[in-house]
């Protein structure tokens, strides 16, 4: 029989909406798990009795949260964009840099130059950085290959990252990130190639879980996104999009119509679009890192999301250009400081709401019976400290699928 594990003397942020308060806190609680799944999360009174062979852990009054969920990253890439950072600071805009062949396209060139193994080696330490801040589930997008060989290599690296770390990796095909030079002046042909060739073979090989499109004046139109999302849905893949990063696009409306998982980068969104997303149950994924690095001034419509109860997730958007950010806790802090989200909203944004944005709301992002045993121990007096005190707190312990992750291998990379 596999052992049953017990942890007591803890304060639990369950994030379970059926528990009390915004974060569903249980003071002096008990967590019981076996085989990577939670068997009991609740007060000490109602807990099942222990057996002599059980592994019992004293949490010493620490706080426990679900494992964090980073629901939007682009963490596989080649090269770096240090020069672009300098240009941005001198006043060039992200769109101008992109139009001159910099930005995403410069990373495509550098990514295509790397082998699958080199891409894996580059990405693994980045994933370790996220794990050090408590991330146990991550979404990763392709989109720096833009051809058959390199898009597939990126997708395969995602599966290998999951195998190497044990964390849950959700794989998104973002072939519609930029127009590759081979298709200059033939944007519809590129979209058709993705819909008719790339996606069917990727789906047949089980290489992806979802399809994203960069819906933007400098990228793809809402009509092209619709073609791609419909193709994805026919193949049984989920759909999501970058739909309001630099300007309002029709992408959010299409996502609402199609019942997408999430609308991401939503600074530029109309009130009607927020209503449509709310009615369709689409989550909003907020990416304060990109807002910060691009010195954006258009705020996402946080009040409208609140009023219409659109779940607000927060993610790092980790990528080499618009958001070279390796800490989900920093992203959570930025969402509070830059946009006045509350610390409770930020906690939900990196747990329950982020899991919902990945379609994993019934397994991840909360601590309750039947959920995966992914959780983090924080040695703080008040959980707001984890969000407030920037760069100061690291997980004291992390359990992933019920197993204690030793901190040493993480720090070695
Ligand atoms: O999420 N907006 C498009 N995609 C990325 C940017 C990637 C890049 O600049 O390399 C983003 O911001
Ligand atoms: Fe992004």
Structure notes:
It is built from 16 helices and 15 strands. A hairpin with a 2-residue loop joins strand 2 (25-34) and strand 3 (37-43). The strands form 2 sheets. The protein has an 8-stranded parallel beta sheet. Strands 3-2-1-4-13-14-15 form a 7-stranded mixed beta sheet, with no helix packed on it. It is α/β, with parallel strands linked by helices and 413 residues long. The chain folds into 2 domains: 5-66 and 365-404, Urease, subunit C, domain 1 (Roll), CATH 2.30.40; 69-239 and 318-357, Metal-dependent hydrolases (TIM Barrel, Alpha-Beta Barrel), CATH 3.20.20.140. The chain has helices at residues 82-89, 94-99, 104-112, 116-132, 148-165, 187-204, 222-234, 251-258, 271-280, 288-293, 302-307, 328-339, 343-349, 352-357, 384-388, 407-412; strands at 5-13, 25-34, 37-43, 55-66, 68-70, 135-141, 168-176, 210-214, 238-244, 262-266, 283-286, 312-314, 375-378, 397-400, 403-405. Helix 4 (116-132) crosses helix 5 and helix 8 runs parallel beside helix 9. The site of fe (iii) ion has 5 residues, from loops.
């Amino acid at each position: 029989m596999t052992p049953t594990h017990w942890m007591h003397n803890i304060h639990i942020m369950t994030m379970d909406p059926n528990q009390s308060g915004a974060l569903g806190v249980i003071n002096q609680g008990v967590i019981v798990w076996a085989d990577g799944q939670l068997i009991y999360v609740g007060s000490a009174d109602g807990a099942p009795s222990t057996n002599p062979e059980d592994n019992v852990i004293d949490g010493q009054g620490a706080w426990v949260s679900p494992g964090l969920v980073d629901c939007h990253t682009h963490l596989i890439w080649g090269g770096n964009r240090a020069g672009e950072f300098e240009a941005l600071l001198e006043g060039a805009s992200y769109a101008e840099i992109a139009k001159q062949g910099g930005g995403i396209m410069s990373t495509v060139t550098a990514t295509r130059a790397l082998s699958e193994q080199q891409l894996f080696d580059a990405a693994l330490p980045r994933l370790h950085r996220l794990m050090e801040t408590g991330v146990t589930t991550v979404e990763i997008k392709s989109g720096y290959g833009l051809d058959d060989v390199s898009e597939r290599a990126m997708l395969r690296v995602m599966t290998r990252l999951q195998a190497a770390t044990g964390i849950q990796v959700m794989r998104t095909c973002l072939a519609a990130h930029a127009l590759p030079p081979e298709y200059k002046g033939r944007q519809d042909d590129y979209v058709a190639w993705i819909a008719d060739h790339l996606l069917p073979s990727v789906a047949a090989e089980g290489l992806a879980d979802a399809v994203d499109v960069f819906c933007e004046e400098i990228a793809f139109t809402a009509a092209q996104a619709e073609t791609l999302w419909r193709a994805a849905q026919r193949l049984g893949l989920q759909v999501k999009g970058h739909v309001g990063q630099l300007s309002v696009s029709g992408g959010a409306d299409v996502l609402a119509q199609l019942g997408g998982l999430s609308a991401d980068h939503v600074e530029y969104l109309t009130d009607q679009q927020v209503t449509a997303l709310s009615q369709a149950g689409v989550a909003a994924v907020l990416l304060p890192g990109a807002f910060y690095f691009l010195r954006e001034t258009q705020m996402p419509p946080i009040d409208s999301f609140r009023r219409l109860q659109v779940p607000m997730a927060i993610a790092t958007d980790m990528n080499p250009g618009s958001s070279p950010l390796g800490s989900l806790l920093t992203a959570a802090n930025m969402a509070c400081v830059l946009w006045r989200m509350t610390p409770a909203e930020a906690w939900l944004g990196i747990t329950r709401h982020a899991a919902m944005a990945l379609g994993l709301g019934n397994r991840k992002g909360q601590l309750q019976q039947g959920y995966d045993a992914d959780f983090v121990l924080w040695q703080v007096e008040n959980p707001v400290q984890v969000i407030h005190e920037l760069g100061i707190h690291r997980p004291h312990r992390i359990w992933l699928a019920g197993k204690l992750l030793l901190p040493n291998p993480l720090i070695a990379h």
